[in-house]
Predict the 3D structure of the following.
Amino acid sequence: MKYLHLIWAALMRRKARTLFTLFSVLAAFLLFGLLDSVRSAFNTASSNVAGVDRLISVSKVSFALSLPKSLYARIQAVPGVTQVSYANWFGGIYQDQRNFFPSEAVADNFLDLYPEWELPEAQRQAFRHTRTGAVVGQSLAERFGWKIGDKIPLQATIFPQKGGSNTWTFDLVGIFRAKNPEQRGNENIFFFNWDYFDEARQFGNGNIGWYAERIADRTQTDKVAQAIDALSTESDHETKTQTEQSFTAALVSQFADIGLIVGAIMAAVFFTLILLTGNTMAQAVRERIPELAVMKTLGFTSKSVLGLLLAESVVLLAIGAAVGLVLAGGTVIGVRAKLGAAIPLSPVGGAIWLRGLALAAVIGLIVGVLPAVRGMRLRIVDALSGR
Amino acid sequence: MPSPAAKSSSRPKWVAQARASATLVGYFAIPIGVLLLSPWWLLLGIVAVLAILIATTRAGRQVWSVTRIGIATIPQRLGSSSVVVVGIAGVVAVLVAMLSMAQGFAVTLKETGTDDTAIVMRAGAQTELNSVIDHDTATLVSQAPQVVHGPNGQAIASPELVVIAALPKKATGLDANVEVRGVGERAWDLRPRVKIVEGRRFKPGLRELIVGKGAREQFVGVEPGATLKLNGQIWTVVGEFDSNDSHNSELWGDTDIVGSTYRRGSSTTSVTVRLTSASAFDAFKAGLKTDPRLQVDVNTTRQYYNQQSDTLAQIIRVLGTTVGVIMAVGAVFGALNTMYAAVAVRTREIATLRAMGFRGTPVIVSVMIETLLLAFLGGSLGALVAWLVFNGYTASTLGANFSAVVFSFDVTPALLWNGLKWALTMGLLGGLLPALRAARMPVTVGLREL
């Protein structure tokens, strides 16, 4: 710590160079923050901690096929299953196709399986008792300026009403909020009552999109899933039951290998950054060889010279990384405020900061080590005489 | 407290500074604007004019001699010069790769549609997967007067049924959705691009499938000769087709048999027809829309597939450009550092040249030429890497029908040129300030530098 001013003086020796390097580092970590935010958003979607004790049963052939309602009672009887609910994809469009958000018809006990959504009890009751009632996540409500009591028309893409109309009108009776702020991105969803849906739709009545089950013991996941699937083996509606987590993960991985894309970009960015700052550090040390020799003459040990030079590059990287991550955080907040959850971004929180700063330290050490070792091995006589 | 006099005397300085920065903006904005907007021939022309100027004028010869020294000393500064090259190469490679992904996806879907075939779905359905068309509707659609008839008098119309099957993917081993398309007998006339490359066509009435080239690459157990289970029934893959468009991601079978396997009865998801000409579309659409017996949406297949590609391709483009811009900012600062260092090393030499009577402009131009040369190298390297690694690289994403759309990255010459323009822009930004500094330094100060 007592050498901090020395490090500072070394960095300020050529202000322009330090500033330019800092900007390069900043750009790299701004990008890191943004990409890591996208990656975490996709990851939290699939590693929803609250979802580990929930199973999803869909048709084995494809999740677009429906299942008979007769399974409901039979699944409920499977040992280890504490609660069963069901839902159906609706895929409605609000005003314009570009306003896409998921909309689902859900059974009246569906939200009981999702304790991570906070919905005031009065609104929960209202949802139960309003036939055309709907509840939405707060992010979604904010995106379109919806308030409780609003009538919201959705255009059906799959399910016209009996009589052929594509317009379904819902009464907004509740707005729920994710308990965990990291999951605000998942609030972009629209639930409405199963009974209204099933009575009014033109076809498919009585069939179910998927079953959701809550289980008593999360170590028994596989056993319970197999028991549920055994109910329909060799029938014409075989099911495939898996944890909600692996169901979502499989779906996300079909969109794109986000990890691979993000990883490839970050590899290119940091490879370039290491070369760039490594070159700058080498230059900075080369210029200061006489000064370093003087320091050694004054009694600085080789080790402390090594430490000083390493610290210099780590400090440079850390400052750049910190500013870059702050900017990334600001950008994420700005984008989310403007576009809602249209782009999956998770807030730049503790985990991203930790990864970013660790990365900064590692890169700082990598780019600092060669110049620092050169400084350490310096022989005073040679350095002072300019050899 | 500053006196009023001091205030007023500071104004000219402020004005001068503003003017200086305005000039600087001009220095940057004009060449960059030209660079980013210009087609290749204009740039080549500028380079040619520069070359002629250098060869024929006195100032040009000065530029040439200063540039020669600069370039000759690059090997001595190999480390820092290669930083510029690699930095810019990285940006260009990432940018070109991302844009080629968007390009490949967009092209794959756009190639699928034409202006003279139309797709009819249930009103509001948006995608085939959401749509249901009953048998009567399908018949009415194919009876429209604008539909072409084949030699035996049959309408060139294909009632099609899109369903999804979950099959394991080669890359992950996990089940992913693949589109199974039941097609009518006339599908081959509707889509002449579809060519059987192995085996044979499926026989109508049998549980036989043919597999698209892309689907075969991405999924396990769909090669010709394989059998697979769809909704409990055994199907045989009898051939592979290549259509060079998004149908390559699908498995094809007979509509009626797919329908009975998935218990759809006689309903389908869409009807595709060939129209007498592209201009007949409006009449065709109007005819179906006004028919009280029908509730359908009518699009040309080109409209339908373009609409599917637009959103995703646009998202990838915006993301790619954003990533590219941020990386470019980092690379420009790296280039600035390098070029300032390059100028600093040569301070005495430049000052000597100035003392001998060389003007400032040749110095500026020569530093710029050097930077642009490095940037050009970097841009070419990055473009080359992107082309070698990514051209033809196949990937898949979930399409509008909730099933895999297989596409290849398409590194087009236009994208490579675009990347090169970015590289030169970064070179300009990174070289101009150091060049100005080299030219503006007072000779006496420069000569005293170590």
About this structure: Residues 42-109+310-448 of chain B form one domain.
